[in-house]
Amino acid sequence: MYALGLCARWLHLASSILLVGAATTIALAGRSDRPTARRWEHRVLLGSRGLALAALGSGLIVLGLQTALFEGRGGAALEAGSIARVLIETQAGRVWLVRFGLLAILAAFLWSRLHVESSLDWRAARAQAMLLGAAALVPAAAAGHAAAVEPETARAIALDGLHVLGAGVWVGGLLPLALLLWTAAAEPGADARPYAVLAARRFSRLALGVVLVLVATGTLMAIANVGNVAGLVGTAYGRLLLAKLGLVVAALALAAVNRAVHLGRLAGDGPTVGRPAMRRLATFLVGEGLIALAVLAIVATMTVTPPARHEAPTWPFSVRLSFAALEGAPAASARVLIGSQIAVLGLVGLAAGLAIRGRRLPLVAGALVVLGAGVGLALPPLAVDAYPTTYLRPSVPYHAASIASGATLYREHCAACHGAGGAGDAPAGLRLARPPADLRGPHTALHTAGDLFWWLTNGIPEAGMPAFGRELGEEQRWDLVNFLRALSSGYSARGMRPAIEPDRPWLVAPDFTFAVGPTPPRSLREYRGRRTVLLVLYELARARSRLAEIAGRDGTLALLGVEVIAVPVDAAPDAIKRIGPEPRVLFSVVTEGAQAIVTAYHLLAASPHVEFLIDRQGYIRAVTRGSGAAGDLDKTIAEVQRLNEERTAASAPEEHVH
Amino acid sequence: MRAWKVVVLLNLALVVGVGWGYVFWGLRAARLDRELALARAAAASGVEREWVVAGVVRAVLPELDVLVITHGEIAGLMAPMTMGFRAASPKIHEGISIGDEVRFTLRGVPPNVVVTAIEKTK
Ligand SMILES: [Cu+2]
Minimal Cα–Cα distance from B43 to chain A, Å? Predict the structure, then answer.
């Protein structure tokens, strides 16, 4: 079933693309009265008729399989009702309907016996075939992965549409052109030789532009669908893309040879230069065309493979490169700097070697050596250990509830070695040959969340760190990773002051969920992009005057876009009642969810009374550790005003995985 | 027929077909939009309505006959917030104090609504 689906998709894609190319090539070559040229045109036309039928037939199979997939049972592929539902209800179905209709019109047009003797008729008919072919091909973009890209879906679809159109012109033109050259190179085809040479030159010029468009749109689409290196090497989609790139590079190499060598020789002396060159060019074009058909097979597979962005990548190497490795290592930094300069030198040499005609070989070889040396010098210091899960994104969000359950797990399973505070100073740990790592250390910035997950799952056998993959479920291990992240963030945030550092957000505020009385729960995330949050963790006995101070300036704070959320550190469910009528507090006082918030945020800053100023992007920007006494609200308000004056940064913290 | 005429007719047919489809669907969508707007206006017009809402009491101001309540979303009236509601009579806030979790009835022609009943839920 899967294989049949792939074959049908490939056939459909290939025939749709070849249709565009055939029409373009005929239009490009132009009208001719030479018998050989007309014979060629007729054969391409016959081929196009076959292609149109193939596109229609394979399209029907694709639709049937799509329906079976949509309904979840094979029988649906043959039921009119189910098929109609897919056609009407799904985007892919509607796109299919439009494309199939256009293909059918194209087929009818190609099969009709139109007389195209006059120049006007000829041009009208050929242009129409081209137009219909393109119109039937391009909408396919709206049914593929591009339609699922968010945001900027329209841009993604436009890019994809341009990409397939370009592919149609280039890939589809190769085989008809090869046929023309082959026919013209034969003894009786002599009358069409100038025509063929002209067509080849025109095609070459057009193809150059088209290839540039293909590369540009392809790169942009790859960024949208793959995202990063891990997605490229670590997912099925990414590896298919790599295979596609490899084949495309091979096809481009052939194309470059054609352009540089064969094209120039076409016009030479007939029997000794022109005709052999024509045949060789035709062979190369066929080679290019076959590679392109293989590329289309990969593309057909990619359309049924989830894009890398939505997959968990498996990192295939045991190292990765990270600039974080240079932190606090001046010697290594210097080495990387020097190495990169040498590499740049090598690149310059390479460019020079390619540009200068004479002495190309020694120049290029020398430049490559310099480049290699530079890279060899610069890369090793950047290498960091990596694991299959290194680029795995946490499946449990960085949320106070997760951090809190991570804290509980840590106390049960880890504190005996790593110490209650994570410093690695517990008695059991100190007895080990290699003392447990200081988990608070900022060096955790060197490790991704996926690294930590790997160690928790598999342990570090040579160091005595046990594996927890069996003992703890996946979710629990992610809870621990989130806990460790909060722990080391708190260590890094020791120096955070009540004053913000303008334009320097770095400390991500863990999300949390809370409720005030019986109202529906809300989460910190909901304030993203809308309001600044002043999160107050208070102990009622000492904080009354501070609460009164904040309550007294309610209006000012609201005007500045500040949402005050107060959390009692004792997590009392009757916190509002306990505050009582004096001071008259009207901001949110958390009565549900307080425990997790307190646990998580005390990891970031532990103090009996502590206030966090969280900006609209979800970063903690200022921390006030106090006693709960009143007095400083003017300062807080000044900081809010400075925040409001900042240019808003677009970065969303949950994208940032560490 | 001459080929160019066929081409012109074909494209004309395509354009007319697409245009007709667009007009057909466009008109339909416009009609649905209008109906929706009418329905909205009807919902918002001056009819007296009633809601039962859960919340927590944040302040009691008997001298103003006002209760300040943190409430969840009130369908068709307002988002979740903390705000003061006028009580229909002074009797209503007898026995109600700060921190009480309550269920209360709002009645009136928006935006003029008053609390007509309230009971503690906890
Ligand atoms: Cu970071």
Answer: 24
